[in-house]
Design brief:
Number of strands: 11
Largest sheet: 5 strands, mixed
Radius of gyration: 33 Å
Number of helices: 20
Helix content: 55-70%
Length: 617
């Protein structure tokens, strides 16, 4: 009998070893395949002779493949050996389809100018959604139930989190050693290793292989990972005391200090939501799996209950601040994402407050037991919110554009204060379509400004430009300048040369004329012409051959305080010409241009012949 038992045990051990080897091989193949796939996509993007090749020539397909290649192998690495084959295959297909659809929508809504291959923000949100769904599926598959016990969810998710951090750390350490080795070889004149690790065909597959190795090593050392997790949770749980005291002190001080200081930061919602998120994480590190034999010390139990109640006022403040910003400036993609985060935070706050207060209403109720269904329900809610944000259902760009245009049309924001650049550059195709509609809406100020922004090809010519962009299709006869002083006229030769300056004067049209002034600017007895274009002023001088050229341009110094109305200052003549102390130098007929430090802005060099100072309005 004992011989049969030994034989049976030996066969079981061999079977377990074989299964472990199969899992290891599968993970290594997945890691290597991921690296090769990413390298192939990189080569397609780089192309040959500077020209991309298929599939990089099809942005929607390329973005979908990149997102799938980046994340699907990690899902498979985490599922091999933990999920049944059928479950892993189904989940893998669903994850790949979901990632592909998210990427397709992200590119489909992107502007032709920016984000042609999608936006960066989809990467962290996709990772969060995948992590949550994967760790809802693994416990359910293990327990053969649609909803597993909470302690299984906790054990699976936190173990995977620790494993992920260690695997990333191992991969980073591996590359640090490679770089160190390359530096050592380089010292003795051998550059082969440095050249090798700099090649994408080597670096990407190797990284995938090393990461897969790290995942497997951390998986086979289950006891070690549990020990690391236990220590990490213990240390983090005691930080809950610190944060609870800080948040309680902050909330207690508000009746005496008011909220003005918080609103003035410009990031009140993000700050308060971050504090709420930190509380939620630390509450869970103290609660852990909730089993009676794993209760934290009394002081931590009190901290968990107090922190759970403090979540509600934090979320209320965040929503209040967000509503004020939206009321003042309307919706933007960032504010819509903040609304989504506040919604998830409100769900946590409601569930945790109930968990903290129920034992007082029902004596004998388990400590914070309602936290468990709250975590599961909010996990599902979080995934649903992420899918909505990155689909047509709640596309932040679409909702923001609709709200901003409505504010413009209703008069809540003036046409000269509206951010047309948001429509052109920051809201994708839906913004471009709204901008085109505004441009074709008539001859009003909003329509004129929309047409100007439509002519811009980059943000630098638009939102952060020193002068408005040139309107395409403008000829010399379309240029209109308002001249001062009164009864002054522009030199005929300057007017005749408008065609040479359309790159500078092309925005000076009937709908938005520029201010000009005729003045002897440099004291040589001949008149120059100063023209204000937006926040830039150009100085034109007649040359010896009778032609005109732009000799200098002026903008407000970056370090100066306040703003000036250049057009009004030039019209009224309220400016002074201050000669510079250091002239240009000429060596053997070659002029050396000086770069002089502005005494008002010591870090900014100036090269103009004179400084024009206009009193601030």
């Amino acid at each position: 009998m004992s011989g049969e038992t030994s034989t049976t045990s030996g066969r079981a051990g061999l079977g377990h070893d074989q299964a472990g080897r199969n899992v290891a091989i599968a993970r290594l193949v997945i890691g290597l395949s991921q690296g090769l796939a990413l390298w192939a996509l990189y080569r397609a993007d780089q192309g040959y002779g500077g020209q991309s090749v298929w599939p990089a020539t099809v942005p929607m397909l390329f973005a979908a493949l990149v997102l799938i290649a980046a994340y699907l192998p990690i899902v498979l690495l985490a599922g091999v050996g933990r999920l049944r084959i059928r479950t892993l295959v189904i989940w893998g297909v669903v994850a790949a389809v979901a990632l592909g659809l998210l990427a397709l929508h992200d590119v489909a809504r992107a502007s032709r100018i920016n984000d042609a291959f999608g936006s960066f923000v989809i990467l962290p949100f996709s990772a969060v959604a995948l992590f949550i769904v994967h760790h809802l599926i693994v416990p359910a598959d293990r327990e053969r139930r649609w909803i597993a016990p909470f302690h299984v969810y906790f054990d699976t998710a936190w173990m995977a989190g620790v494993q992920l951090v260690l695997s990333i750390g191992f991969t980073g350490a591996f590359w640090l050693l490679l770089f160190l080795g390359a530096a050592l070889f380089n010292v003795i004149g051998l550059k082969f290793l440095g050249d090798l690790i700099g090649e994408p065909w080597f670096a990407l597959p190797l990284t995938g292989l090393v990461f897969a190795t790290a995942v497997h090593l951390t998986d086979v050392r289950d006891g070690l990972i549990r020990g690391v997790r236990t220590v990490a949770l213990m240390l983090l749980s005691w930080l809950l005391l610190v944060l609870t005291v800080l948040v309680a002190g902050f909330l207690a001080a508000l009746p005496f200090t008011g909220l003005d200081g918080l609103w003035e930061t410009g990031s009140a919602t993000a700050l308060v939501l971050s504090a709420a998120g930190a509380l939620i994480i630390l509450i869970n590190t103290a609660y852990q799996d909730g089993r009676p034999d794993n209760l934290p010390p009394v002081v931590l139990r009190v901290a968990v209950r107090v922190a759970s109640i403090l979540l509600t006022p934090l979320i209320v403040i965040a929503v209040w601040g967000l509503s004020l910003r939206i009321g003042q400036h309307g919706l933007t993609p960032d504010r819509i994402i903040a609304i989504a985060c506040a919604l998830v935070g409100a769900a946590y706050a409601a569930g945790y407050a109930a968990a903290a207060l129920i034992p007082f209403a029902r004596r004998g109720s388990p400590w914070m037991k309602a936290l468990e269904p709250t975590n599961i329900a909010v996990a599902v809610l979080t995934v649903a919110v992420i899918l909505a944000l990155f689909s047509p259902l709640a596309d932040p760009a679409r909702l923001s554009v609709a709200d901003q245009v409505k504010r413009l049309e209703s008069g809540k924001v003036a046409a000269d204060k509206f951010d047309y650049g948001f429509l052109r550059f920051d809201s994708g195709k839906v913004g471009e379509k709204a901008l085109a509609k505004l441009a074709d809406s008539g001859d009003g100020e909003a329509s004129r400004r929309a047409r100007i922004i439509q002519a811009s090809d980059s943000r630098d010519e638009n939102r952060y430009a020193e002068s408005p962009p040139v309107i395409t299709g403008v000829g010399a006869s379309d240029v209109v300048l308002n001249v001062s002083p009164q009864n002054a006229t522009l030199p005929p030769s300057f007017v005749a040369g408008y065609g040479e300056f359309l790159d500078l004067l092309g925005q000076c049209v009937k709908a938005s004329p520029c201010q000009a002034r005729v003045v002897d600017f440099d004291g040589d007895g001949r008149s120059e012409v100063l023209v204000v274009r937006g926040s830039t002023m150009s100085a034109f001088k007649q040359e010896a051959d009778g032609t005109w050229s732009e000799r200098s341009s002026y903008t407000q110094a970056e370090c100066s305080r306040g703003t000036v109305n250049l057009a009004e200052g030039l019209r009224t003549g309220r400016f002074t010409v201050e000669p510079q102390a250091f002239p240009d130098l000429v060596f053997d007929g070659v002029r050396m241009q000086r770069w002089e430090t502005d005494p008002d802005c010591p870090d900014i060099a100036a090269s103009n012949r004179a400084t024009v100072r206009v009193p601030r309005q």
